[in-house]
Amino acid sequence: MEAIKCIKERRSIRKFQDKKVPREVIDEIVAAAAYAPSWKNTQVTRYMVTEDREVMNKIADGCVLGFEYNIDTIRNAPALVIVTMIQGRSGMEKDGSATTSKGADWGVFDTGIATQTFCLAAHDKGVGSVIMGIFDEASVGEVVPVPEGQKVAALIAIGYPDEEPKAPRRKEVSQLVTYLD
Ligand SMILES: Cc1cc2nc3c(=O)[nH]c(=O)nc-3n(C[C@H](O)[C@H](O)[C@H](O)COP(=O)(O)O)c2cc1C
User: Fold this and answer.
1) Would the CB of 69 count as within 6 Å of ligand 1?
2) Could you tell me if the CB of 25 is within 6 A of ligand 1?
3) Average pLDDT of the segment spanning 98-124
4) N or C: which end of the chain has fewer CB within 10 A?
5) Residue 88: CA atoms inside 13 Å, Cβ hemisphere, count?
6) 7 lines ligand 1 (CB under 6 A)
């Protein structure tokens, strides 16, 4: 798919067909997301995937701060991706000191890029996704085994779309860009 078309036509999908996404397809999506840029190529983003209905229902019912869209989305999705990031590497020097005034914030930046790259690659393969930020990190950690030294950055529900939402309105270019000279 042409890049601009993929960027513009990707939508957040919250309703999915009752059809699994094959592991090979998920692997291909992750392989594409691995090409996202990252701080000094540290590649701190990781993806935990579950299709276990019991686990997903626990996250839907107990970990999304009661936010109904997320409860319904996760209960309806064939798979949930728990995006994690390794702490203390991106933005940091080998001796543990911060390279810039943003310190380890670069990890969040990297994981955001990787997450969007994941969603674009998924869209290219006909797989719908929605990034979810409304969750309680500690309670997600009680349901799934977040590896030591990693933090949960986002949840992504994935599956074959069962809706074609319109694009929410975007700001005009003139509101977004300032040419300085
Ligand atoms: C960091 C982040 C957190 C988000 N959290 C949620 C969420 O918790 N639940 C949800 O339904 N959508 C969530 N979204 C999706 C946005 O609502 C969506 O991207 C936005 O409305 C634009 O729609 P589009 O993705 O279809 O272009 C999130 C998106 C981002 C980037």
Assistant:
1) yes
2) no
3) 97
4) C
5) 7
6) no
Planar angle of CA 123, 32, 23, nearest 5 degrees: 75
Cross-strand bridge partners of residue 86: 150
* Residue 65 CB less than 6 A away from ligand 1: no
Q: How many CB atoms lie within 10 A of CB 169?
A: 6
> Using the 8-state DSSP alphabet, how is residue 70 labeled?
H
SS3 of residue 56 by DSSP: helix
The torsion of the CA quartet 96, 102, 104, 109, rounded to 10 degrees, works out to -150
Q: How far apart are CA 42 and CA 52, in angstroms?
A: 30
Q: From ligand 1's centre to the CA of 93, what distance in Å?
A: 32
CA of 133 to the centre of ligand 1 (A): 8
Q: Are 158 and 77 in contact (CB under 8 A)?
A: yes
How far does residue 131's CA lie from ligand 1's centre (Å)?
6
Reported as a single tens digit per residue, the pLDDT across 145-172 is 999 999 999 999 999 999 999 999 999 9
**Strand pairing category for 150-159 and 45-50:** unpaired
**Residue found under tokens 């779309």:** 161
Say yes or no: CB of residue 132 within 6 Å of ligand 1: yes
Write the pLDDT tens digit of every residue in 138-150.
Answer: 999 999 999 999 9
Report whether residue 134 contacts ligand 1, using a CB cutoff of 6 Å: yes
